[in-house]
Give the backbone structure.
Amino acid sequence: MTEMPSSEILSEAEVEEFTGSARRAGQVEWLTTKGWIFEVSRGGRPIVSRYYFRLRMSGIHPTSITTTMPVEPNWNAVR
């Protein structure tokens, strides 16, 4: 059984592996070009959420997921 990662963000090694770049500037360029959502640390390291990574790698674009609820229940559906 594989051990679950303890961090909510990808490690530097993981970001390097999936972007194919050891340089932080190259990683940021790759992420930007591919349309990924990420933050950059004060030191220039791209910070990628593990959850976001898993969604994207599964073919799901989190920006397309809607979480809005109707303001009021559909009372016509209750009969």
User: Anything to note?
Assistant: Residues 68 and 74 are 15 Å apart (CA to CA). The chain is about 35% helix and 5% strand. The first helix runs from residue 12 to 19. The helical segments are 12-19, 24-33, 50-57.
